């Protein structure tokens, strides 16, 4: 996914506060766009999961980008690690296994319209998503 030049962005340092910083940034932007309620909650969860994955499995620099297009909020998280994101099968994600890890991208996929990833030419990966606003278009 190509990120537009006017996308809002946040550089994030890896650490215990990374997901919180990303949620604050996202919450402020969603308020500007008059996106609230369950939609806001879903988007905050998506951003938190993607940033947490970048911190845990990637490498700095980490950058979150958000923009609105075509009736969707879209986002991308870039990091400079060389890992490969993996999606667990639904029976593993929602089964009896009580493990705390490995469900983030499946959760994002359950909430978002699309989620995918690609390697960046300069190294690292970009994990991106789109979330349909169902007729509500941010200003």
Average pLDDT for all residues: 88
Number of domains: 1
**Which architecture would the CATH scheme give at its second level?**
2-Layer Sandwich
Biggest sheet, in brief? 5 strands, antiparallel
What letter string, H or E per element, gives the SSE order?
Answer: EHHEEHHEE
Q: Whole-number radius of gyration?
A: 14 Å
Q: How helix-rich are the residues, as a percent range? A: 25-40%
Strand order of the largest sheet: 1-2-3-5-4
* Net shape: globular
- Separate helix tally: 4
CATH class: Alpha Beta
Describe the structure.
The longest helix has 21 residues, at 37-57. The protein has a single domain, classed as Heat Shock Protein 90, CATH 3.30.565.10. Strand 4 and strand 5 (125-132) form a beta hairpin. It has four helices and five strands; from the N terminus they run E-H-H-E-E-H-H-E-E. With 139 residues, the chain is of the alpha+beta class. Helix 1 packs antiparallel against helix 2 (37-57) and helix 2 packs antiparallel against helix 4. The chain is 35% helix and 25% strand. Strands 1-2-3-5-4 form a five-stranded antiparallel β-sheet, covered by helices on one side. The two termini are 22 Å apart. The protein has helices at residues 18-32, 37-57, 90-93, 104-111; strands at 8-12, 62-69, 72-79, 114-119, 125-132.
Secondary structure topology:
Elements: E1 8-12, H1 18-32, H2 37-57, E2 62-69, E3 72-79, H3 90-93, H4 104-111, E4 114-119, E5 125-132
Antiparallel strand pairs: 1-2, 2-3, 3-5, 4-5
Helix pairs in contact: 1-2, 2-4
Short description:
This protein is globular. A five-stranded antiparallel beta sheet has the order 1-2-3-5-4, with helices on one face.
């Amino acid at each position: 996914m190509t990120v537009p030049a006017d996308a809002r962005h946040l550089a994030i340092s890896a650490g215990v506060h990374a997901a919180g910083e990303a949620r604050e940034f996202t919450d402020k932007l969603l308020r500007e766009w008059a996106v609230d309620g369950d939609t806001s909650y879903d988007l905050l969860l998506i951003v938190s999961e993607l940033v947490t994955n970048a911190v845990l499995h990637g490498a700095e620099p980490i950058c979150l980008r958000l923009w609105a297009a075509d009736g969707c909020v879209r986002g991308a998280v870039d990091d400079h690690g060389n890992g490969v994101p993996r999606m667990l099968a639904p029976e593993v994600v929602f089964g009896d296994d009580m493990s705390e890890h490995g469900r983030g991208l499946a959760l994002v996929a359950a909430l978002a319209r699309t989620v995918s990833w690609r390697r960046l030419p300069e190294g690292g990966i970009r994990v991106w998503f789109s979330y349909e606003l169902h007729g509500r278009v941010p200003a």
